[in-house]
Design goal:
The protein is mainly beta and 541 residues long. The chain is built from three helices and 36 strands. Strands 31-30-29-28-36-35-34-33-32 form a nine-stranded antiparallel beta sheet, with no helix packed on it. The termini are far apart. This is Coagulation factor 5/8 type domain protein. Pfam families: F5_F8_type_C_2. Acts as a defensive agent. Recognizes blood group fucosylated oligosaccharides including A, B, H and Lewis B-type antigens. Does not recognize Lewis A antigen and has low affinity for monovalent haptens.
Protein backbone atom coordinates (compact mmCIF):
# COMPACT_ATOMS: atom_id res chain seq x y z
CA UNK A 1 0.00 0.00 0.00
CA UNK A 2 2.79 2.44 0.96
CA UNK A 3 4.62 1.66 -2.28
CA UNK A 4 1.45 2.36 -4.30
CA UNK A 5 1.00 5.70 -2.54
CA UNK A 6 4.65 6.57 -3.23
CA UNK A 7 4.30 5.70 -6.93
CA UNK A 8 1.15 7.83 -7.25
CA UNK A 9 2.95 10.72 -5.50
CA UNK A 10 5.87 10.58 -7.93
CA UNK A 11 3.62 10.31 -10.93
CA UNK A 12 1.82 13.50 -9.83
CA UNK A 13 5.17 15.20 -9.13
CA UNK A 14 6.50 14.16 -12.53
CA UNK A 15 3.44 15.60 -14.27
CA UNK A 16 3.88 18.90 -12.42
CA UNK A 17 7.54 19.07 -13.37
CA UNK A 18 6.85 18.23 -16.98
CA UNK A 19 4.25 20.99 -17.14
CA UNK A 20 6.73 23.51 -15.76
CA UNK A 21 8.83 25.05 -18.52
CA UNK A 22 12.49 25.72 -17.71
CA UNK A 23 14.53 27.86 -20.05
CA UNK A 24 18.15 28.60 -20.89
CA UNK A 25 19.27 31.63 -22.87
CA UNK A 26 22.00 31.31 -25.51
CA UNK A 27 24.13 34.43 -26.08
CA UNK A 28 26.76 35.36 -28.65
CA UNK A 29 29.51 37.52 -27.14
CA UNK A 30 32.44 39.60 -28.30
CA UNK A 31 35.21 40.14 -25.76
CA UNK A 32 37.79 42.74 -26.82
CA UNK A 33 37.14 41.66 -30.40
CA UNK A 34 37.31 37.90 -29.71
CA UNK A 35 34.15 35.81 -30.29
CA UNK A 36 32.61 33.55 -27.67
CA UNK A 37 29.39 32.14 -26.25
CA UNK A 38 27.45 32.45 -23.02
CA UNK A 39 24.63 30.33 -21.60
CA UNK A 40 22.41 31.70 -18.82
CA UNK A 41 19.49 30.25 -16.89
CA UNK A 42 17.18 31.98 -14.43
CA UNK A 43 15.35 35.18 -15.21
CA UNK A 44 14.04 38.51 -13.95
CA UNK A 45 17.08 39.74 -11.98
CA UNK A 46 19.20 36.64 -11.21
CA UNK A 47 20.97 34.38 -13.69
CA UNK A 48 23.57 31.64 -13.48
CA UNK A 49 25.57 30.17 -16.31
CA UNK A 50 28.90 29.89 -18.04
CA UNK A 51 31.01 32.15 -20.22
CA UNK A 52 33.25 30.55 -22.88
CA UNK A 53 35.68 32.63 -24.90
CA UNK A 54 37.06 31.22 -28.15
CA UNK A 55 36.73 27.65 -26.82
CA UNK A 56 39.61 27.85 -24.32
CA UNK A 57 38.66 30.26 -21.51
CA UNK A 58 35.63 29.46 -19.40
CA UNK A 59 34.19 31.01 -16.25
CA UNK A 60 31.10 30.15 -14.21
CA UNK A 61 28.97 33.23 -13.61
CA UNK A 62 26.35 34.57 -11.24
CA UNK A 63 24.78 37.56 -12.94
CA UNK A 64 22.46 40.09 -11.33
CA UNK A 65 20.40 42.71 -13.11
CA UNK A 66 19.18 45.80 -11.29
CA UNK A 67 17.44 48.58 -13.24
CA UNK A 68 19.22 47.45 -16.43
CA UNK A 69 22.61 47.46 -14.68
CA UNK A 70 24.35 44.07 -14.68
CA UNK A 71 27.09 42.70 -12.48
CA UNK A 72 28.85 39.36 -12.85
CA UNK A 73 29.30 38.31 -9.24
CA UNK A 74 31.52 35.27 -9.83
CA UNK A 75 34.97 36.32 -10.92
CA UNK A 76 38.51 36.42 -9.59
CA UNK A 77 39.25 38.92 -6.80
CA UNK A 78 41.03 41.28 -9.18
CA UNK A 79 38.38 41.10 -11.92
CA UNK A 80 35.13 42.98 -12.48
CA UNK A 81 32.42 42.64 -15.12
CA UNK A 82 30.07 45.61 -15.31
CA UNK A 83 27.59 46.67 -17.91
CA UNK A 84 23.99 47.33 -18.90
CA UNK A 85 21.23 45.13 -20.40
CA UNK A 86 18.66 46.43 -22.85
CA UNK A 87 16.30 43.82 -24.23
CA UNK A 88 18.34 41.06 -25.83
CA UNK A 89 21.64 42.94 -25.78
CA UNK A 90 24.34 43.61 -23.19
CA UNK A 91 27.40 45.78 -23.24
CA UNK A 92 30.01 46.72 -20.69
CA UNK A 93 33.64 46.76 -19.61
CA UNK A 94 35.78 44.03 -18.05
CA UNK A 95 38.58 45.26 -15.77
CA UNK A 96 41.51 43.36 -14.32
CA UNK A 97 44.05 44.88 -11.97
CA UNK A 98 47.34 45.43 -13.75
CA UNK A 99 46.02 44.31 -17.15
CA UNK A 100 43.66 47.00 -18.29
CA UNK A 101 40.04 47.49 -19.37
CA UNK A 102 38.40 45.52 -22.16
CA UNK A 103 35.02 46.21 -23.82
CA UNK A 104 32.54 43.38 -24.31
CA UNK A 105 29.12 43.00 -25.91
CA UNK A 106 26.57 40.18 -25.94
CA UNK A 107 23.50 39.44 -28.06
CA UNK A 108 20.87 36.85 -27.19
CA UNK A 109 20.53 34.31 -30.01
CA UNK A 110 18.11 31.70 -28.68
CA UNK A 111 15.95 30.53 -25.77
CA UNK A 112 15.79 26.76 -25.34
CA UNK A 113 13.85 24.52 -22.96
CA UNK A 114 15.58 22.39 -20.34
CA UNK A 115 14.31 18.92 -19.56
CA UNK A 116 13.15 18.76 -15.93
CA UNK A 117 14.69 16.18 -13.61
CA UNK A 118 12.09 13.61 -12.53
CA UNK A 119 12.94 11.61 -9.36
CA UNK A 120 13.41 7.86 -9.89
CA UNK A 121 10.57 5.49 -8.92
CA UNK A 122 12.51 3.45 -6.36
CA UNK A 123 11.80 2.13 -2.93
CA UNK A 124 15.05 3.49 -1.49
CA UNK A 125 15.94 6.92 -0.16
CA UNK A 126 13.77 9.55 -1.86
CA UNK A 127 15.88 12.54 -0.81
CA UNK A 128 16.75 15.13 -3.45
CA UNK A 129 19.82 14.42 -5.57
CA UNK A 130 22.51 16.99 -4.78
CA UNK A 131 26.25 17.58 -4.94
CA UNK A 132 27.47 15.70 -1.86
CA UNK A 133 31.07 16.90 -2.21
CA UNK A 134 30.34 20.64 -2.07
CA UNK A 135 32.68 22.29 0.47
CA UNK A 136 33.49 18.96 2.15
CA UNK A 137 36.89 18.10 3.60
CA UNK A 138 39.36 17.47 0.75
CA UNK A 139 42.99 16.25 0.66
CA UNK A 140 45.62 15.59 -1.97
CA UNK A 141 49.00 13.90 -2.13
CA UNK A 142 50.91 17.16 -2.68
CA UNK A 143 50.28 20.82 -3.44
CA UNK A 144 52.03 23.20 -5.81
CA UNK A 145 51.33 26.63 -7.31
CA UNK A 146 48.88 27.38 -4.50
CA UNK A 147 46.37 24.82 -5.80
CA UNK A 148 44.94 23.62 -2.48
CA UNK A 149 42.57 20.61 -2.56
CA UNK A 150 39.59 22.64 -1.28
CA UNK A 151 39.48 24.50 -4.59
CA UNK A 152 38.02 21.42 -6.29
CA UNK A 153 34.95 21.43 -4.01
CA UNK A 154 34.31 25.18 -3.70
CA UNK A 155 31.36 25.11 -6.11
CA UNK A 156 33.23 26.99 -8.85
CA UNK A 157 33.84 25.13 -12.13
CA UNK A 158 36.06 27.88 -13.54
CA UNK A 159 38.98 26.02 -15.16
CA UNK A 160 41.33 29.00 -15.32
CA UNK A 161 44.03 28.36 -12.71
CA UNK A 162 44.72 32.07 -12.35
CA UNK A 163 41.14 32.60 -11.17
CA UNK A 164 42.00 30.77 -7.93
CA UNK A 165 39.61 27.81 -8.11
CA UNK A 166 41.72 24.94 -9.53
CA UNK A 167 43.58 22.38 -7.40
CA UNK A 168 47.18 21.53 -8.34
CA UNK A 169 49.54 18.80 -7.15
CA UNK A 170 53.26 18.35 -7.74
CA UNK A 171 54.65 16.18 -10.55
CA UNK A 172 55.17 12.86 -8.77
CA UNK A 173 54.01 9.29 -9.55
CA UNK A 174 50.41 8.34 -8.76
CA UNK A 175 49.37 11.76 -7.48
CA UNK A 176 45.85 11.77 -6.02
CA UNK A 177 43.05 14.03 -4.82
CA UNK A 178 40.21 12.89 -2.54
CA UNK A 179 37.17 14.13 -0.64
CA UNK A 180 35.42 12.87 2.49
CA UNK A 181 31.63 13.10 2.06
CA UNK A 182 31.19 13.00 5.85
CA UNK A 183 29.17 9.77 6.00
CA UNK A 184 28.03 6.88 3.81
CA UNK A 185 26.13 8.20 0.76
CA UNK A 186 24.17 6.81 -2.16
CA UNK A 187 26.22 7.99 -5.17
CA UNK A 188 24.68 8.13 -8.65
CA UNK A 189 27.42 9.80 -10.66
CA UNK A 190 30.64 11.80 -10.38
CA UNK A 191 31.49 14.77 -12.60
CA UNK A 192 35.11 15.86 -13.07
CA UNK A 193 35.78 19.36 -14.44
CA UNK A 194 39.17 19.80 -16.08
CA UNK A 195 41.52 22.76 -16.20
CA UNK A 196 40.96 25.01 -19.23
CA UNK A 197 43.64 27.73 -19.38
CA UNK A 198 46.27 25.15 -20.38
CA UNK A 199 47.57 21.61 -19.72
CA UNK A 200 44.19 19.84 -19.94
CA UNK A 201 45.96 16.76 -21.34
CA UNK A 202 47.55 16.13 -17.94
CA UNK A 203 44.24 14.69 -16.70
CA UNK A 204 44.57 11.35 -18.48
CA UNK A 205 45.08 7.67 -17.60
CA UNK A 206 43.50 8.05 -14.18
CA UNK A 207 41.21 6.16 -11.81
CA UNK A 208 38.11 7.27 -9.93
CA UNK A 209 37.74 5.30 -6.69
CA UNK A 210 34.87 5.13 -4.17
CA UNK A 211 35.33 3.54 -0.75
CA UNK A 212 33.30 3.15 2.47
CA UNK A 213 36.54 3.49 4.47
CA UNK A 214 39.50 5.92 4.36
CA UNK A 215 42.01 5.10 1.62
CA UNK A 216 45.03 3.38 3.17
CA UNK A 217 47.77 5.09 1.15
CA UNK A 218 49.24 5.87 -2.27
CA UNK A 219 49.66 2.29 -3.52
CA UNK A 220 47.27 2.26 -6.46
CA UNK A 221 47.68 -1.46 -7.13
CA UNK A 222 46.70 -2.32 -3.56
CA UNK A 223 43.64 -0.07 -3.76
CA UNK A 224 42.52 -1.67 -7.03
CA UNK A 225 42.81 -5.12 -5.44
CA UNK A 226 40.68 -4.12 -2.43
CA UNK A 227 37.21 -5.67 -2.98
CA UNK A 228 35.53 -2.96 -0.86
CA UNK A 229 36.69 -0.18 -3.22
CA UNK A 230 34.75 0.57 -6.40
CA UNK A 231 36.91 1.91 -9.24
CA UNK A 232 36.65 3.26 -12.79
CA UNK A 233 39.55 3.70 -15.24
CA UNK A 234 39.72 6.57 -17.76
CA UNK A 235 42.40 5.78 -20.32
CA UNK A 236 42.75 8.82 -22.58
CA UNK A 237 42.81 12.57 -21.95
CA UNK A 238 39.74 13.91 -20.14
CA UNK A 239 37.47 16.46 -21.76
CA UNK A 240 36.35 19.68 -20.10
CA UNK A 241 33.65 17.63 -18.33
CA UNK A 242 33.85 13.90 -17.56
CA UNK A 243 30.85 12.03 -16.12
CA UNK A 244 31.37 8.72 -14.34
CA UNK A 245 28.27 6.62 -13.50
CA UNK A 246 28.58 4.94 -10.08
CA UNK A 247 25.18 3.78 -8.77
CA UNK A 248 26.62 2.59 -5.45
CA UNK A 249 27.43 3.58 -1.87
CA UNK A 250 30.53 5.16 -0.43
CA UNK A 251 31.98 7.90 1.72
CA UNK A 252 35.44 8.60 0.28
CA UNK A 253 35.99 9.57 -3.37
CA UNK A 254 39.47 9.69 -4.91
CA UNK A 255 40.90 10.67 -8.30
CA UNK A 256 44.36 9.10 -8.78
CA UNK A 257 46.76 9.15 -11.73
CA UNK A 258 48.03 5.80 -13.00
CA UNK A 259 51.28 7.41 -14.12
CA UNK A 260 53.29 10.54 -13.28
CA UNK A 261 52.07 14.07 -13.94
CA UNK A 262 50.57 17.13 -12.31
CA UNK A 263 46.93 16.63 -11.25
CA UNK A 264 44.67 19.69 -11.58
CA UNK A 265 40.92 19.69 -11.01
CA UNK A 266 38.61 22.66 -11.50
CA UNK A 267 35.77 20.91 -9.65
CA UNK A 268 34.70 17.45 -8.52
CA UNK A 269 30.95 16.96 -8.10
CA UNK A 270 29.54 13.83 -6.47
CA UNK A 271 25.80 13.56 -7.09
CA UNK A 272 23.57 11.40 -4.94
CA UNK A 273 21.75 11.49 -1.60
CA UNK A 274 22.24 10.53 2.03
CA UNK A 275 21.95 6.81 2.69
CA UNK A 276 20.43 7.60 6.07
CA UNK A 277 17.88 10.03 4.66
CA UNK A 278 18.97 12.60 7.26
CA UNK A 279 18.17 16.28 7.04
CA UNK A 280 20.54 18.60 5.20
CA UNK A 281 20.81 21.01 8.12
CA UNK A 282 22.12 20.50 11.67
CA UNK A 283 19.59 19.71 14.37
CA UNK A 284 19.07 22.43 16.98
CA UNK A 285 20.68 20.91 20.08
CA UNK A 286 20.64 23.95 22.34
CA UNK A 287 19.70 27.56 22.80
CA UNK A 288 22.61 28.70 20.63
CA UNK A 289 24.22 32.13 20.51
CA UNK A 290 22.21 34.91 18.83
CA UNK A 291 24.33 37.32 16.78
CA UNK A 292 23.70 40.07 14.27
CA UNK A 293 25.69 39.61 11.06
CA UNK A 294 26.79 42.72 9.17
CA UNK A 295 28.60 42.58 5.87
CA UNK A 296 30.06 45.01 3.35
CA UNK A 297 30.49 43.40 -0.05
CA UNK A 298 31.86 45.01 -3.19
CA UNK A 299 30.00 42.27 -5.07
CA UNK A 300 26.57 42.29 -3.42
CA UNK A 301 26.08 38.75 -2.18
CA UNK A 302 23.43 36.71 -0.43
CA UNK A 303 23.91 35.33 3.08
CA UNK A 304 23.43 31.67 4.01
CA UNK A 305 23.51 29.63 7.21
CA UNK A 306 24.24 25.96 6.49
CA UNK A 307 23.18 26.51 2.90
CA UNK A 308 19.86 28.13 3.84
CA UNK A 309 19.38 31.76 2.85
CA UNK A 310 19.14 34.21 5.76
CA UNK A 311 18.44 37.20 3.58
CA UNK A 312 18.78 38.12 -0.07
CA UNK A 313 18.50 41.51 -1.67
CA UNK A 314 18.90 43.44 -4.87
CA UNK A 315 22.24 45.24 -5.24
CA UNK A 316 22.64 48.97 -5.03
CA UNK A 317 24.91 50.05 -7.85
CA UNK A 318 27.19 53.04 -7.41
CA UNK A 319 29.00 55.34 -9.81
CA UNK A 320 32.36 53.81 -8.89
CA UNK A 321 32.43 50.04 -9.55
CA UNK A 322 35.17 49.47 -6.95
CA UNK A 323 33.13 51.00 -4.13
CA UNK A 324 31.46 48.72 -1.59
CA UNK A 325 27.69 49.16 -1.13
CA UNK A 326 26.41 51.48 1.56
CA UNK A 327 24.87 51.09 4.03
CA UNK A 328 25.94 47.76 5.50
CA UNK A 329 23.44 44.91 5.32
CA UNK A 330 22.53 42.80 8.33
CA UNK A 331 20.74 39.60 9.35
CA UNK A 332 19.94 37.97 12.69
CA UNK A 333 20.86 34.34 13.28
CA UNK A 334 21.24 31.90 16.14
CA UNK A 335 24.48 29.95 15.79
CA UNK A 336 25.24 26.49 17.09
CA UNK A 337 28.38 24.40 17.27
CA UNK A 338 29.52 23.54 13.75
CA UNK A 339 27.28 25.99 11.90
CA UNK A 340 28.63 27.29 8.59
CA UNK A 341 27.91 30.93 7.77
CA UNK A 342 28.51 31.95 4.14
CA UNK A 343 28.55 35.31 2.40
CA UNK A 344 28.78 35.18 -1.34
CA UNK A 345 26.59 32.31 -2.51
CA UNK A 346 25.71 28.87 -1.23
CA UNK A 347 27.57 27.22 -4.12
CA UNK A 348 30.79 29.07 -3.35
CA UNK A 349 32.91 30.85 -5.92
CA UNK A 350 32.18 34.35 -4.68
CA UNK A 351 34.24 36.19 -2.11
CA UNK A 352 33.87 36.98 1.54
CA UNK A 353 33.26 33.37 2.55
CA UNK A 354 33.51 32.54 6.25
CA UNK A 355 33.50 29.38 8.34
CA UNK A 356 31.99 30.05 11.77
CA UNK A 357 31.29 27.87 14.79
CA UNK A 358 30.34 28.26 18.45
CA UNK A 359 32.15 25.85 20.72
CA UNK A 360 30.67 24.02 23.69
CA UNK A 361 31.90 26.74 26.03
CA UNK A 362 29.81 29.36 24.25
CA UNK A 363 32.76 31.14 22.60
CA UNK A 364 32.34 32.51 19.10
CA UNK A 365 35.18 31.11 16.98
CA UNK A 366 35.54 32.09 13.34
CA UNK A 367 38.04 32.54 10.53
CA UNK A 368 38.08 34.38 7.22
CA UNK A 369 40.57 32.28 5.23
CA UNK A 370 38.52 31.13 2.24
CA UNK A 371 41.28 28.79 1.01
CA UNK A 372 40.48 26.15 3.64
CA UNK A 373 37.27 25.01 5.27
CA UNK A 374 38.68 22.62 7.88
CA UNK A 375 37.36 23.12 11.42
CA UNK A 376 40.23 23.94 13.78
CA UNK A 377 40.26 24.00 17.55
CA UNK A 378 40.61 27.55 18.97
CA UNK A 379 44.20 27.00 20.14
CA UNK A 380 45.39 25.51 16.85
CA UNK A 381 45.66 28.82 15.02
CA UNK A 382 47.44 31.70 16.73
CA UNK A 383 45.99 34.24 14.27
CA UNK A 384 42.39 33.58 15.33
CA UNK A 385 40.61 36.23 17.33
CA UNK A 386 38.35 34.75 20.01
CA UNK A 387 35.97 37.08 21.86
CA UNK A 388 34.09 35.50 24.75
CA UNK A 389 30.32 35.66 24.93
CA UNK A 390 29.22 38.10 27.63
CA UNK A 391 27.30 36.94 30.68
CA UNK A 392 23.95 38.53 31.46
CA UNK A 393 25.44 40.98 33.98
CA UNK A 394 28.08 42.37 31.62
CA UNK A 395 26.41 42.57 28.21
CA UNK A 396 27.71 45.40 26.08
CA UNK A 397 27.27 45.81 22.31
CA UNK A 398 30.69 45.65 20.70
CA UNK A 399 31.72 45.52 17.04
CA UNK A 400 34.11 42.64 16.46
CA UNK A 401 36.01 42.02 13.25
CA UNK A 402 37.18 38.41 12.78
CA UNK A 403 40.95 38.12 12.54
CA UNK A 404 41.60 41.86 13.03
CA UNK A 405 45.01 41.60 11.35
CA UNK A 406 43.47 40.64 7.99
CA UNK A 407 44.32 41.71 5.35
CA UNK A 408 47.49 43.06 6.98
CA UNK A 409 49.19 39.71 6.42
CA UNK A 410 49.16 40.33 2.68
CA UNK A 411 49.75 44.07 2.78
CA UNK A 412 51.92 44.70 5.85
CA UNK A 413 54.95 45.75 3.86
CA UNK A 414 52.94 48.38 2.03
CA UNK A 415 51.26 49.75 5.14
CA UNK A 416 54.04 49.46 7.72
CA UNK A 417 52.56 46.60 9.76
CA UNK A 418 49.36 48.47 10.53
CA UNK A 419 46.15 46.51 10.98
CA UNK A 420 43.75 47.43 8.19
CA UNK A 421 40.00 47.68 8.06
CA UNK A 422 38.08 46.16 5.16
CA UNK A 423 37.34 49.61 3.75
CA UNK A 424 41.02 50.31 3.12
CA UNK A 425 41.06 47.80 0.24
CA UNK A 426 37.69 47.49 -1.56
CA UNK A 427 38.80 44.27 -3.30
CA UNK A 428 39.65 42.53 0.00
CA UNK A 429 36.06 41.54 0.69
CA UNK A 430 34.85 39.73 3.76
CA UNK A 431 32.20 40.07 6.43
CA UNK A 432 32.40 40.96 10.09
CA UNK A 433 30.12 40.13 13.01
CA UNK A 434 28.31 42.27 15.54
CA UNK A 435 27.35 40.37 18.68
CA UNK A 436 26.88 40.78 22.40
CA UNK A 437 30.44 39.96 23.38
CA UNK A 438 33.20 41.16 25.62
CA UNK A 439 36.99 40.92 25.51
CA UNK A 440 38.49 38.73 28.23
CA UNK A 441 41.57 40.95 28.50
CA UNK A 442 39.66 44.24 28.58
CA UNK A 443 40.03 45.83 32.02
CA UNK A 444 39.68 49.55 31.30
CA UNK A 445 36.02 49.91 32.25
CA UNK A 446 32.86 50.39 30.27
CA UNK A 447 33.19 49.90 26.53
CA UNK A 448 30.67 52.28 25.06
CA UNK A 449 31.77 53.49 21.63
CA UNK A 450 28.22 54.12 20.41
CA UNK A 451 27.45 57.76 19.70
CA UNK A 452 29.41 60.76 18.49
CA UNK A 453 32.87 61.44 19.89
CA UNK A 454 34.68 64.73 19.33
CA UNK A 455 38.42 64.98 19.31
CA UNK A 456 40.08 67.58 21.55
CA UNK A 457 41.44 70.22 21.82
CA UNK A 458 39.54 71.34 18.71
CA UNK A 459 36.26 70.20 17.19
CA UNK A 460 37.71 69.67 13.70
CA UNK A 461 38.23 65.95 14.36
CA UNK A 462 35.05 63.90 14.76
CA UNK A 463 34.56 60.18 15.26
CA UNK A 464 30.93 59.02 14.99
CA UNK A 465 28.95 55.85 14.45
CA UNK A 466 26.42 55.81 11.62
CA UNK A 467 23.02 54.14 11.65
CA UNK A 468 24.49 51.15 9.82
CA UNK A 469 27.00 50.48 12.62
CA UNK A 470 30.10 51.78 10.82
CA UNK A 471 32.36 54.36 12.42
CA UNK A 472 33.40 57.47 10.55
CA UNK A 473 36.29 59.82 11.21
CA UNK A 474 36.64 63.21 9.60
CA UNK A 475 39.01 66.15 9.68
CA UNK A 476 38.47 69.30 7.65
CA UNK A 477 41.09 69.46 4.91
CA UNK A 478 41.96 65.75 5.11
CA UNK A 479 38.75 64.25 3.73
CA UNK A 480 36.43 61.54 4.90
CA UNK A 481 37.90 58.43 6.52
CA UNK A 482 35.55 55.58 7.26
CA UNK A 483 35.74 51.95 8.21
CA UNK A 484 34.48 49.39 10.73
CA UNK A 485 36.10 49.77 14.12
CA UNK A 486 37.78 46.75 15.67
CA UNK A 487 39.74 45.75 18.76
CA UNK A 488 43.43 44.95 18.76
CA UNK A 489 44.65 41.83 20.62
CA UNK A 490 45.72 44.16 23.43
CA UNK A 491 42.13 45.36 23.85
CA UNK A 492 42.36 48.82 22.31
CA UNK A 493 39.56 50.20 20.14
CA UNK A 494 40.99 51.06 16.73
CA UNK A 495 39.90 52.60 13.44
CA UNK A 496 41.95 53.31 10.32
CA UNK A 497 41.40 56.45 8.34
CA UNK A 498 41.72 56.36 4.60
CA UNK A 499 41.80 58.81 1.72
CA UNK A 500 39.21 58.76 -1.03
CA UNK A 501 41.46 56.62 -3.24
CA UNK A 502 41.50 53.89 -0.58
CA UNK A 503 44.99 54.45 0.85
CA UNK A 504 45.44 54.06 4.60
CA UNK A 505 47.17 57.18 5.92
CA UNK A 506 46.83 56.68 9.65
CA UNK A 507 44.81 55.31 12.52
CA UNK A 508 43.14 56.10 15.82
CA UNK A 509 43.69 53.87 18.83
CA UNK A 510 41.42 54.50 21.81
CA UNK A 511 40.93 53.19 25.36
CA UNK A 512 37.55 54.00 26.88
CA UNK A 513 37.41 55.31 30.44
CA UNK A 514 35.17 53.71 33.10
CA UNK A 515 32.59 56.49 32.83
CA UNK A 516 31.79 55.51 29.26
CA UNK A 517 31.92 59.13 28.07
CA UNK A 518 35.64 59.84 27.73
CA UNK A 519 38.44 58.10 25.88
CA UNK A 520 42.18 58.53 25.60
CA UNK A 521 44.59 57.20 23.05
CA UNK A 522 46.73 58.25 20.13
CA UNK A 523 46.42 59.22 16.51
CA UNK A 524 49.22 58.32 14.12
CA UNK A 525 49.68 59.31 10.50
CA UNK A 526 51.75 56.84 8.50
CA UNK A 527 52.80 59.44 5.96
CA UNK A 528 53.52 62.04 8.69
CA UNK A 529 54.29 62.56 11.35
CA UNK A 530 52.20 65.56 10.34
CA UNK A 531 49.85 64.79 13.22
CA UNK A 532 50.62 62.11 15.78
CA UNK A 533 50.88 61.56 19.51
CA UNK A 534 48.47 61.36 22.44
CA UNK A 535 44.88 62.36 21.93
CA UNK A 536 41.52 62.32 23.70
CA UNK A 537 37.80 62.26 22.88
CA UNK A 538 34.65 63.19 24.73
CA UNK A 539 31.30 61.64 23.91
CA UNK A 540 28.55 64.09 22.98
CA UNK A 541 25.76 63.62 25.54
Amino acid sequence: MKRQIRIVFYLVLASVLLSTYLWAEQWKISFNGYPGTMELSGGQSNYTGRFNLHGNWEQMLDLQVYRNAIFFRRAAADQKYLGVMEGGRMQGVFTQHGSGRYPWTAERTDIVSIDPVVPPLSGGDTGAVKNLALRKQARQSSTSYGGTPERAVDGNRDGNHNAGSVSHTANVPNDWWEVDLGSQKQIQEIKLWNRTDCCSERLSNFYVLVSPNPFSGNNLKALLNDPSIWHFHHQGAAARETTVAVAGEGRYVRVQLAGQNWLSLAEVEVFGHDSSGSTAYPVDTGSGTPVTIYWHMADDADVYLNGKALRSYSPSFKTRPDEAPRPAFSARATLHNGDIFTVGGRRGGSFGLMLLAVDDGGRIVFKTDRSSWAVYEPDERSDWYEPAVANSSAKRPVTVQPDPWYPQKELNARYHNTALSIWSEPDKRFAYLVGTVRLSDQATGTINPVGTWRHHPTATWVVSQGADGRYHAQEHGLGNASGPAYFTPAGSFRIDYVTRDGAVTGFYEVTFAPDGHTATGRVQELSGPRRSGNTSWTKVR
